[in-house]
Description:
- The complex is a heterodimer of chains A (77) and B (417).
- Chain A is 44% helix and 18% strand.
- By secondary structure, chain A is α+β, with helices and mostly antiparallel strands.
- Chain A starts with a strand and ends with a helix.
- Chain B is an alpha/beta fold and 417 residues long.
- Helix content of chain B is 31%, strand content 11%.
- The A-B interface holds A 2-6, 9, 11, 13-23, 26, 55-59, 61-63, 66, 68 and B 1-11, 13, 15, 18, 21, 23-25, 27, 72, 74-75, 102, 124-125, 127.
Amino acid sequence: xxxxxxxxxxxxxxxxxxxxxxxxxxxxxxxxxxxxxxxxxxxxxxxxxxxxxxxxxxxxxxxxxxxxxxxxxxxxx
Amino acid sequence: xxxxxxxxxxxxxxxxxxxxxxxxxxxxxxxxxxxxxxxxxxxxxxxxxxxxxxxxxxxxxxxxxxxxxxxxxxxxxxxxxxxxxxxxxxxxxxxxxxxxxxxxxxxxxxxxxxxxxxxxxxxxxxxxxxxxxxxxxxxxxxxxxxxxxxxxxxxxxxxxxxxxxxxxxxxxxxxxxxxxxxxxxxxxxxxxxxxxxxxxxxxxxxxxxxxxxxxxxxxxxxxxxxxxxxxxxxxxxxxxxxxxxxxxxxxxxxxxxxxxxxxxxxxxxxxxxxxxxxxxxxxxxxxxxxxxxxxxxxxxxxxxxxxxxxxxxxxxxxxxxxxxxxxxxxxxxxxxxxxxxxxxxxxxxxxxxxxxxxxxxxxxxxxxxxxxxxxxxxxxxxxxxxxxxxxxxxxxxxxxxxxxxxxxxxxxxxxxx
Lengths: 77, 417
């Protein structure tokens, strides 16, 4: 994961897929996921407004579907 | 490049618009490791053949990789020349992949023996591209040289036998092989490879063969339709964005990434804006200079200029400018067209018109600044005096040189007494 002026770039060495985060707050959310109890808490902590939550949820779902975000159990395994 | 966008965060800007201002580090870069090559392909982008004595040493290559790791460059596309003829090539690949810099390398297959293929299949950070420019030996060898078709197919068979998955079969699209697109796909499928099609460019020796090899206008449409029909299943390295002006944009970023998201490091460490632009005009610096590659990428005057908003010039009024962006900078440069006008292969035909005018006025096109072609390849046409004609003969008295002194004089050596 690499911060860039417009947000961040993510590269998955397994799937060779490149993802783009077009918002710095989403970068903060992704970074804090393993410390926060839930994704919702991570969003609130990063200062995402209630009205934006559905948008952030969709973004995180996109990343999960691309295998960019995986559960902590999967990492441990 | 396969991309995933978190588009859910609706923003007025498209990704390509953000990328036009450049990135802190390239997404990937091309690194030509050597100008040495066992082949002399007529369309070679880097006019390769002979090794340059100033080539980066193994240690200097390691230092470049350390820097790329620090800058978080995700992967490098290694090429040449033929990179595998460097004796330290496999060592450099291992060093990169163990330092979190993924490697994709292009090869004609000359060094991919069954044993080597076994070793490579174990490395997960590695992608291999085998170059083949004809689905038949006849079409391929005409461009890449005798025997090169067999070499490539043997290499693919070795990779398949070693269990290497998803290596790429990389094809430069020419007038002669565009009718073979389905056959290329069949070859790729047969070896468990993925097909990758790229654009022929008038760079390097390609400047000399472009007129004969570049696709005809009706073939461009054929290629476009074929790419649209095959979608994500065929890779293009984002090289055909000029074809987007036919209508639907092709998969990929559709952007000239020169100096913004990509660049080239050549064998002697020179950094150019892109692999198709090896010319002083596009030279940004050298990795051997103080500050190294990072300083060149972030601060060179040329790259900063390329990241400024570009003027579309004559193209601005075209309705397709938003997707085609005027096409390829290098293709325009080496065909002598203005950089802020249409691509020589503009699908609306504007480039062709300009080219005709330029030819009518006998305008000169820029020649590559660097040429490492084998001296045995046919030389470029030169101007000036023709060859100097000489007759070589021995001096008359040497028509039959003496075998030893005694043959001329049986008493040789005694004469002085």
